[in-house]
TrEMBL record:
The keyword Nucleotidyltransferase does not apply. Keywords: Signal. Pfam families: LysC (PF23793). It comes from the Bacteria. This is Phage protein. It comes from Aeromonas molluscorum 848. InterPro entries: LysC, LysC-like. Residues 1-24 form the signal peptide.
């Protein structure tokens, strides 16, 4: 009797342990996220048709502001690209804008 109970206990233990070895569904592949810099939009200057010196001065102010905006976009892109390049050279990606 004791041998029968011991045999059943070992079989039950083996079956319980083997149930933990069942094949699980494969885990999903990791998604690759590529960090990129913001794209540039074409720089546009406001149309001009000044009629007098006051209009010409206003047009100059608007044109300078448009060029400053365009230069800021280009500077931002260059800074982002340099940050990514430095991160790549150091073996890690930089994510701060």
């Amino acid at each position: 009797m004791k041998m029968l109970n011991l045999g059943l206990g070992l079989i039950a233990l083996c079956l319980i342990l083997l149930s933990g070895c069942s094949s699980a569904p494969p885990s999903p592949a990791p998604q690759i996220i590529r960090l990129t810099c913001q794209g540039l939009t074409p720089c546009q200057l406001p149309p001009a048709s000044p009629a007098n010196n006051g209009d010409l001065l206003d047009q100059l102010t608007q044109t300078e502001a448009a060029w400053a905006n365009c230069a800021a976009q280009v500077d931002s892109l260059i800074t982002c690209q340099q940050r990514h390049q430095n991160g790549r050279d150091n073996g890690k990606a930089k994510t701060n804008p």
